[in-house]
Structure formats: C-alpha cells, structure tokens
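forwarding from the other thread:

> can someone predict this with flavin-adenine dinucleotide?

sure thing
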Amino acid sequence: MATHCDYLIIGGGSSGAVVARRLAERTSGRIILVEAGKSDEGDPAAVDLTRLDEQTADYDWGFRAAPLAGSPPVLNYARAKLLGGCANHNDCAFIRPPDSDFDEWERLGATGWNAAAMAQYWQRITETIAIETAPCHPASRRFIEAGLELGLEEVDFGREVRPGVGLFPLNAKGRLRQSSSVAYLHPIAALPKHLEVRTRCMANRLIIENGRAAGAETSRGEIRAARAVVLAAGSIQTPQLMMLSGLGPAAQLKDHGIAVIRDMPHLGRHLRDHVAAPVVWETHEQVSGWEICPFEATMMLQLERRAPAPDILFHFGLRVREKYDDARLATKGPAVKASPNVTRAKSEGSVRLSGPAMTDKPEIALNYFDDPSDLGLLAEALKFTRRLGQTKAMQALCRAEVHPGPSVQTDDDWRAYIRSVCETVYHPCCTAAIGRVVTPELKVMGVDGLFIADASVFASLVTVNINAAVMMVAEKAADCILGS
Ligand SMILES: Cc1cc2nc3c(=O)[nH]c(=O)nc-3n(C[C@H](O)[C@H](O)[C@H](O)COP(=O)(O)OP(=O)(O)OC[C@H]3O[C@@H](n4cnc5c(N)ncnc54)[C@H](O)[C@@H]3O)c2cc1C
C-alpha cells in the first residue's frame, strides 16, 4: 500500500535537509524526506569533523570518475551516502560566493538569481548555522607568511572573496559540523510531526502520471505526493534517477530499455567541477596536531587581469592524503602540499547511465582540460606554488619539493605533470542547470509538480567551495516550491 504525503523530498543531503526544514516551517502539509543512507544523528564519525577518517566505505556511494577525455575512471569520486550528504563528508570550508557569480547566473538566464536577490538566502543560513575558523597550526601560518612574502595581503575570507591569503571559514561549531542535517534537522525526534525523515530509504524510480510527478517507488514502498516531488539527490544521482524514470536524453534511455517520457538532451551534460593539482614538499619534521581539520589555510589569486573574481583557490594540506590515499603522490617522509584549483573551470563533463537501476553506478566523465584555458591557468598557478615553496617561510618548514620535483621546468613539463596528477575538489554541479533542465523557479521543464533543489541546478560553477552556494539554492528552492 502506498504512503501519501503532500511533499516528497528525495535525498537528505546539504540541500534536501534545508528544503525539508523550511517547508515544515511554512506549511502544515505532510512532508516526507527520504535518504538512501543511514542517519548521522549520534554518530561521531559523521558529525565530529575531527573524526572524518573514521568513516568507512559504507558512508559513500563508491563512484569513480574518468578525469580526462577518453581516460579510464581512475579517480575516486566521493559522494556521501548518509543523512547530511556530502556536508557530513567534507572539510567544511564554507565561503559565500562573490556577487559576480550570481550576477553571472542571472546573465545566463536565471532570472531572479542575481547577487542582490540572493543576499536574503545567505542571511537565512547565517541565522541558522555557526561559521568559525579553526585555530591556526604553525605550518598553516608558514603558508600564510609565504603568501605575504610574495606580496599578497592577509584576507578574512568570511567577509570578502578577493586575492589574498588566510584561513578557511568553516561551517563548524568547534568540532561539531554545521551540516544542514545537524543545523536544520537535529534532534530528529523534536521535528514537527508533519515532517517525517526516512533513512535507509532509496528512491528507485519517479512515478510520472499524465505529465505530472506523482511520487516515487522506493526501497520501502511507494510514496505518493499530492503537491510536489523535490529532487535533492545531488549532481550525480538527481540526473540518474530522472533518467531511470524516463526523463533524459532519449537515445541513451532507449539504450537501456527505458521508455522515454520526455526527451531532455541536456540532462546529465555540462557537468562542471573544480580541477586541482598539487605541489608536494617533504618537511623537516613530522607535521601533526591540527585541532579541527588538516586543511586550514587557503589562498586566492587573480591571474587574469580582467577576471571578475579570483580565478585560483588553494587548499593547503597539513598532510598529502585527501579523502583517499593517492599513490601518485607518494612521499618517503612527512609532507605537506598546496593544491590550487581553477575556480570557474570551463571544461564540461557528463553523467550517463551504466545500467537500468539506481544501484548501477553511473558513468562519470570529467573531461578536465577539455577547455584548454583551464590547463593554462593551472600551469601558471603551479609555477606560483613552486615560488611559494622557495620563500623563507616555507623553507623553514620544508626540506624539498618532491612532486613534481626539479625535472619539471618548461610549460610542456608542467602541463604533462598536471594531466598525470590532476585531482577533483569534489564539486560537481550544473548537470540539470537552470535554463536548460529547470526554469528559474526550479521546476523541471515539461513535467508538472517536479522540482530540483540541489547542486545540479547551478547555472555555472561558483568561484569558491560550493556548499554555501548549494545551501543558498536550497533556501531559495523552498520559496520556489511554495510559490513565493
Ligand atoms: C570529500 C568531499 C569534500 C568536500 N569538501 C567541501 C568543502 O570543504 N566545502 C564545500 O563547500 N564543499 C565541499 N564539498 C562539496 C559539498 O559538500 C557538496 O557540493 C554538497 O554537499 C552537495 O549538496 P547536494 O545537496 O547537492 O548533494 P549531497 O550533499 O550529496 O546530498 C545528496 C543526498 O542524496 C542521497 N541520495 C542519492 N540518491 C538517492 C536516492 N535515489 N534516494 C534517496 N536518497 C538518495 C545521498 O545519499 C545524499 O545524502 C565536498 C564534497 C566531498 C565529497
């Protein structure tokens, strides 16, 4: 027997938790939020940022992605599988995008998404979550001093996004993450009675009847929604679920034996992501003892004079390991790294079905450097990074540059190195973009009662780590769904 509600939200990650809370505050209709993964509440590995490394493989969907056109899928492409989504999986860097990003969205056709209009959503977020910086480790301080030696200014990135060096603002209260599940849903037992959170409940297919989204078939039975179905399964699985339900590129759907309800040629295409590559130095001594997370310091550069905002953003790592060990960056001794990424990388990848079920891991192609300007910018950023390693401040910390090391000197050397070690910052977006798949009111074009509220709808990549922008989208999505 089907369960009935007014609003069904699919995916309890960064965006889904925000939408659920805001709908519950403003309507008395019955809301069900379904999340395929487990609950994060009471799980220190999920909500204590210092215990991130305790998360095991069952916190993740286990996707892999192909970094370069035609390459095999060799990058681990982490996507969280738990309530709170990737915001319980991430390093909590939390920066409001510069105004030029949202003004660009408006220019691309996202009417009503300009920076002035979006300011209210940032305001709502800051009234709900805490944003702090971690205490600065002496090695992070060396990196900041290196930037100052090369002429940059120290910047408070919690207040402004401009070229400079400083600490990451974190969506954290001490060690406790301020993910949207922690800040908007916990304690779950105290949520309003008309909001139900169902964990370990996976949507397998949308129910579309007479051109209208009527609900979803889930691993715990059919759920029917009288008013709206809201997709918040993230930039990879929102397109996957839609395609499995007959919405998507017609030829691809037919290849998997899926009856086409609506041909949506853009769905799953135009995937944008922040691409990075590191310089790694071995240090004189072991670096340890950071208090909250090993990525405390950042730096922004504006290499192109006419760029609207910084075009390079760094993560300075007190260790080389990211979410996963990377054999390409092995070192003999203790090491640190500085990893610049291209903030508005133009290369576009795709998400495609690999089979006809939600459990068939999608094919993710990143196509990094498909747009050659991304490679050029990253090469210039890495040359600057090497200079950082030659400053007095970094020489006091580091013994030698080990990746790429002295054999890399010419532009061609740098470009080959970057292609061999490029890494993701885990920021996929734009796979169901406003103007291509959804209207500026976030309605899926051509299907009634179906909204998308997650990073898929970005009109273009934003300059900074994307989670703050995802939550701003979700805050606005609640307004769109309620029609205000
Ligand atoms: C390792 C890592 C580090 C990162 N670091 C940062 C950082 O420091 N700062 C920053 O700003 N951003 C960071 N990000 C990115 C940021 O966390 C994400 O962009 C953001 O969380 C995306 O939000 P979302 O709501 O679109 O998707 P998600 O948060 O991924 O939520 C999607 C949810 O939907 C669920 N789901 C999927 N399919 C189904 C289904 N069929 N049925 C039910 N549920 C389903 C998933 O389990 C998941 O919980 C990082 C990401 C990763 C992976």
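The chain has two domains: 3-66+77-129+178-268+429-482, 138-167+275-344+369-421. thats all i got for now
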